[in-house]
Amino acid sequence: IIRRLLSGKKRPDGIFASIEKYAITTYQVCKELKINIPRDLKIIGMTNLRTAALLNPSLSTLSQPAFEMGREAASLLIKMIEKKSYAAANDIIVLNNELTIRESV
């Protein structure tokens, strides 16, 4: 899919890879197609794993606060059980993500 996308006439100027495996595959395809990262294509990956900084150019990432997400989900579930109501399921919870800018953008 990535090869087809990057080989087309209307190539995107950026890709957001939902998992790091997709970002790595995109890097490989870019190398094969001689697409320069970040000049020709910008890439941002999800999760800030160690490999992100090791890629060349290093991968910019967006990290989600997984621990806080789990804590909030458990808290919401407990509220729903105690109140025997799904009203708490409509609560809006905002958690901050962290964008780590590296060389891929």
Descriptive keywords:
105 residues, alpha/beta, 4 helices, 40% helix
How many distinct beta strands? 4
Structural class of the helix and strand makeup? alpha/beta
CATH superfamily: Response regulator
The domain count comes to 1
CATH architecture annotation: 3-Layer(aba) Sandwich
Sheet having the most strands: 4 strands, mixed
Widest sheet: strand ordering: 1-2-3-4
Rg for CA atoms: 19 Å
CATH class: Alpha Beta
Can you offer a commentary on this structure?
With 105 residues, the protein is an alpha/beta fold. It has one domain (2-100): Rossmann fold. The protein has four helices and four strands. Strands 1-2-3-4 form a four-stranded mixed β-sheet, with helices on one face. The model has no long low-confidence stretch (mean pLDDT 90).
Concise overview:
The protein is an alpha/beta fold and 105 residues long. Helix content is 40%, strand content 15%.
Give me the secondary-structure topology.
Blueprint: H1 2-7, E1 14-17, H2 20-32, E2 42-46, H3 50-54, E3 60-63, H4 66-83, E4 98-100
Parallel strand pairs: 1-2, 2-3
Antiparallel strand pairs: 3-4
